[in-house]
Amino acid sequence: MTFTTLIRLHEASCAFKFLRQAALLLTLTLASSAAADLHVATTGKDSNPGTASAPFRTIQHAADLAQPGDTITVHQGVYRERITPPRGGTSNKARIVYQAAPGEKVTITGAEPVGNWTKDQNDTWKTTISNSLFGSFNPYSDLIHGDWFRNKDRPLHTGAVYLNGDWLTEAATLDDAQKPAGATPFWFAHVDKDTTTIWAQFKDVNPNEQNVEINVRRTVFYPAKTGINYITLRGFTMRAAATPWAPPTAEQIGLIGTHWSKGWIIENNDISYSTCSGIALGKYGDQWDNKAESAEGYVGTIKRALANGWSKENIGHHIVRNNVISHCEQAGIVGSMGAAFSIVTGNDIHDIHVRMLFTGAEMAAIKFHGAVDTVISHNHLHRSVMGLWLDWMAQGTRVSSNLFDENSLQDLFVEVDHGPLLVDNNIFLSPTSLLSRSRGCAFVHNLFGGAINVNAYDARQTPFLKAHGTEIAGLHDNPGGDDRYYNNLFVGHADLTRYDTAPLPVHMDGNVFLNGAKPSKSEANPVVKADLHPELKLVAKPDGLHLEGNMDKVLAGDRTRKLVTTKLLGKAVVPNLPFEQPDGEAIRVDRDYFGHQRKGANPAPGPFAKPLLGELDIKVLGLK
C-alpha cells in the first residue's frame, strides 16, 4: 500500500468520523429542540419518566428537568412544596410553561398539616412540633421587618395558623391566646432550640378532627436566582406562604415572585393567604436591603438597579391576568421597578391588609414603583386599604377601565410621579376616589364617586425618565398642578377647587359635577347640578355586579365635548413628554369602559359611551 493510498484512506476515515459526529450532533440538537410535555401527579414517582401514564411526584423534580419550550402539566391534588425554577425560557416562543391539567383543581401550598393538639385552657389548644419540619427557615421566629414597616409596638411573625383554610390572628402575648376566644381567634408560638410550640384558639372545635395547617415555607413559586425569564404559570390554586415584608428598597418575595426577570405570564390562578404579598414583580436583593428608608435612599436604590440591569431589554414585560388574589396583608401585587413594561389586567384583588395588624407603607391591592409604560386595566380592586398605589416614576403608565370599591383609604394614590400618566374610563366608588401628590396626570372619562384630595407641594426630589425607558433624565420636586381633567363625571365630595392655587397650570373641560361636587375655576364651562343625587351603588346579581342609580335626563345634550387625544393632552411639564402609547403611537380615548366605540364628535361624560340617563342598571362586571 503506497503512502498516497494511506493518506486517502485516512482522509476518508476522518471524513466518515466527521459526518458521524455531525449526524450525532444534529440528532441531539433535534431531540433537545423538541418540546417535552412533563406530567406530575400525586400518584407519581420522581423516578418515573414523567409521561402522562408514568408521571413525576413533585413539581420541583419536573422543574429541575424542564428546558425552554417544555410544558409541565400538574394533575389534581394538593402539592406541599416550594418550586424554585432553575431556568426559564429563552423567548416568548420558547417558554417553560407550568399549568394545571385542564378541568382539574391543583393546589400548591406553603403550609403543612399539624395534629397532636391537646387542650390547654378555655378555648386554647397547643401542639409541639419538631423544628426539623421547618429546615433552615422557621416562620415562627421570623419577624416581619424592613423599611417603612411599623408594627404597632408588638412583634409579628411570618408564620400563620389556618383552620379549614382560613387564618387565625397572631396574639401579642401568650396570655391573650389563652383567654376565651372572641370574634377573632388568636394563635401564639414559642420557638426553642429543638421545637416550636403553638397555642391556638379553637372555639367549640376539636382541632384534631379538623383541617389545621401552619405556614412552613417562605414562598410557593420563586426562583433563587435573578434573570429566570419567560415562565408561564397557569391555572393553579396557590396559597399559604410566610412571605417577608417587601419594601421598594429590598428584595421583594411574594407567594409567587419573578425575582428581577423578564417576560412571565401569570394567569388564571387563585392566589391567597400570603403573610405579606401575593405576587411580587419586583426587585432583587443586595447589601442595601432594608437600609435605605428615605427619598434619597430610594434614589440610590434606583441608581443601583440601573447598574443591575433595569432596562427595557432586561426587566419586566410581564403579563398578570385573570387571577383572583386575596387575603394578603401587604399587597396583592407588589413591584419595585420590576413591573415596568408590563400588563396587569382582568384580576380580581380583594381583602388586602384588612386585618391591619401593622402600619407603615406599601399596602394596597396593587403597589408599584417605577411602573414605566405599564398598563393596568379591567381589574376589580376592592375591600383593600387602597386600590392602586403608583409611587415614583409612573411614566407612560395607563390606568384604564378598572372598577374600584370598598377601599378604606382611597381607590387611587399617585405619589411623587411626574407623568405622563393617563387614568381613563375607571369607576371609582369608594368614599375617597383619589389622593394625588403628583403632576403630569390626565384624568379622562372617569366616574368619581368619592372625594378627591390633592397635595399642593412635596419637596422630595424624585426622578423623571427619558421617554419609554429607564434612564434617569433628572430629579425634580413635586409642585401641584399640571393635571388634566376631561369629560369626567363627579358624584359626591370631589372638590377640584384645591387646584385653584396650584403653582402649575391645570387643564379642565367637559366635566360634570353632581351632588355637591365642586369644579375648579380653571374650567370655563362645567356642568354643575348640586341638587342631583344619583345615589349610585353596586348591586350583586346572579350574573355579576350592576351599577344602579338614577340620573337626570336633563343631562342629555347638555353641551358638546372634545374627543381626548395626545394632541389635546399636550405634554407633561416636568419630563416635557407627550401622552402616548408605550410604542410611541398617539392616544385616542375613543373606546369606553366596555371597549365600545365612542361618538367621536361629541363623547358623553363618564366611562360609558352611552350617556347615563334616567334609571340605571348597568352590568359593570360579570361573574368569573
Brief summary:
The protein has 624 residues and is mostly beta strands.
CATH architecture of the largest domain: 3 Solenoid
Output the strand order for the largest sheet.
1-2-4-16-19-22-25-29-32-35-38-43-45
> CATH homologous superfamily of the largest domain?
Single-stranded right-handed beta-helix, Pectin lyase-like
Task: List unreliable stretches of 5+ residues.
Answer: 1-32
Strand content: 35-45%
Largest sheet: 13 strands, parallel
Note the overall shape: globular
Number of helices: 5
Q: What top-tier CATH class of the largest domain fits best?
A: Mainly Beta
Derived structural class: mainly beta
Tell me the number of strands: 52
Under CATH, the topology of the largest domain can be stated as Pectate Lyase C-like
Radius of gyration: 28 Å
Give the domain tally. Answer: 3
Helix content: under 10%
Mean pLDDT, nearest integer? 93
| Terminus-to-terminus distance | 83 Å
Q: Which helices and strands, and how do they pair?
A:
Elements: H1 3-33, E1 37-40, H2 59-65, E2 71-74, E3 77-80, E4 96-100, E5 106-109, E6 111-113, E7 118-121, E8 124-130, E9 149-150, E10 161-163, E11 166-167, E12 169-170, H3 174-178, E13 186-191, E14 195-201, E15 212-215, E16 231-234, E17 237-241, E18 256-257, E19 265-267, E20 270-274, E21 277-280, H4 295-307, E22 319-321, E23 324-328, E24 331-336, E25 343-345, E26 348-352, E27 359-360, E28 364-369, E29 375-377, E30 380-384, E31 386-391, E32 397-400, E33 403-405, E34 410-415, E35 421-424, E36 427-428, E37 432-437, E38 441-444, E39 447-448, E40 451-454, E41 457-465, E42 472-479, E43 484-486, E44 489-491, E45 507-509, E46 512-514, E47 527-529, E48 537-541, E49 544-551, H5 566-569, E50 571-572, E51 577-578, E52 614-622
Parallel strand pairs: 1-2, 2-4, 3-5, 4-16, 5-17, 12-13, 16-19, 17-20, 18-21, 19-22, 20-23, 21-24, 22-25, 23-26, 24-28, 25-29, 26-30, 28-31, 29-32, 30-33, 31-34, 32-35, 33-36, 34-37, 35-38, 36-39, 37-40, 38-43, 39-44, 43-45, 44-46, 46-47
Antiparallel strand pairs: 6-15, 7-8, 8-14, 9-27, 10-11, 10-15, 13-14, 41-42, 48-49, 49-52, 50-51
